[in-house]
Amino acid sequence: MNAPKPVRVRFAPSPTGYLHVGGARTALFNWLYARSQKGTFILRIEDTDQERSTQESYQAILDGMNWLGMDWDEGPGRGGDFGPYLQSERLPIYREHLEKLATEGHAYRCFCSPEDLAAREKAVTDAGGQWEGYDGKCRDLDPAEASKLEAEGKPFAWRLRTPTDGSTFWYDIVVDKREFQNEVLVDRVIFKADGFPTYQFACVVDDHLMGITHVLRGDDHVSNTPFQILIYQALGWNLPKFGHMPMILGPDRKRLSKRHGATSVQEFQKQGIIPEAMMNYLALLGWSPGGNADEVMTREALIKKFSLKKVNSSPGAFDYDKLAHINSEQIKRKSPEERHALAAGVLAEHGWRMDPEWKIHNATDSDTYLARILKTLGNRFSSLITLPEQIGFFYTDDHWRDDEAWPSAVQGPENVQALTALADALEAELDMDQPQPAEAFENVTRALAGKLEIKAGALIHPSRVALTGQLRSAGIFEVMELVGLRRSLARLRRAASLS
RNA sequence: GUCCCCGUCGUCUAGUGGUUAGGACACCGCCCUUUCACGGCGGCAACACGGGUUCGAUUCCCGUCGGGGAUGCCA
After folding, report:
1. Distance A315 CA to B64 C1' (A)
2. What is the pTM of this model?
3. How far is residue A373 from each of residues A71, A103, A390, A490, measured CA to CA in Å?
């Protein structure tokens, strides 16, 4: 048997928008396949649509790829032996291959303008018929006549002459055999009147010239494949393997669109999704590690377990809840250092810093302080979005002021009494000039509860709201330790006085 | 309309010619507890429908229905 060729796959987006989750998922499967097979991952920009391609989009795509951590071996900024990797810089190459097809009679000039075509389509539709695509008007145009029209300066496009009988098929990696009757394939344009190749043509030429072994793309390309196969055949080239990934649908099983919420990877980034989670979730949409295996995986695990054979053939609905779950799991599983970096980013956005005047037990500088906060938070830190709410009160007295929890937990005679009693006890028992550990606060609180013959909770709950402004928080005694005795007292008294 | 594809809990999925059809998210209980989260335990919940083939179909075939894609001088 022949030795397997080294895998070469590519992601070939067109720079006409942001990096959409569908595109990102396609890119991911290519990337995972390349990495798992020790192959080459190529990024190629398909900017043959002069109208819609933009520099901003180009940049957004590169940013999205980088953010997700999908590095490419060849492509923009990386170079490679098969460049250029921007189709707009490969025009002479396409031209050359077009000429070959023209010479051999596989391509012909079509002088029908888009307006002509639209008019003919309308005529057919008006007559109650169904327009089946290009009608082949110029297919048998006399070459002399065509040359004459060209000499007159009449604009034209090039079309591929496709067979009218037989069928074109391939064995898809995902869905096995796919077959189309050539009869239904029309002579589509391969070179536009503006001198640029169409996607159909540029894609085939590049995939071949760049030595692509597996064309892995979205299922929306299935109907392009037979036409492209015809181009390969006309050029006398061997076919790569094709694999069509199932589409991603919205939660309502309609095509995923903006009205479903975020659809571009940068939007998810803004919503506090970390790249590892995005990648992990995307991988799970259409692929599964199988059986009861853990779905939360590192990049390395993903690469190790990924297999094209396990890619599903049915379209899947995007589930924001599950993404959120994967995201929190990924955050929880990060190392303390990585979590610290993540949280520090959030702090920086809010401009929060530790008050250097304050004496905190076991924390005298900002980094240590944050490390202590995160340790106290533990698993509660599982979202970049809720983190500001969770830790704001460690940094500013303003943070806790307004909260709807206030009336229920702090107001009322018992609560005011409890807050005051606790403040008095803490002040009496603890040395204001020394940092106090959580245990000290807890001992005083529980002793007071015993003395007053009430449950500790009757002191704890109002204190939590007084200290944090929230009904939920990390352990309240650790909160007191980190907020510090002096400031804790102030907050307790403040709450009591405001009630 | 035509062509192509898909169809297992609400969602993502595993799986098989004979299984108590497994896991995860979400949801609901209980436990833990200082609230929340985590964790633990348990629960709810699926083979779209109708015909075949077969001793036996969720699994194989056909049809129906449902969903998606394509039908561009966009990619």
Report:
1. 21
2. 0.92
3. 34, 73, 10, 20
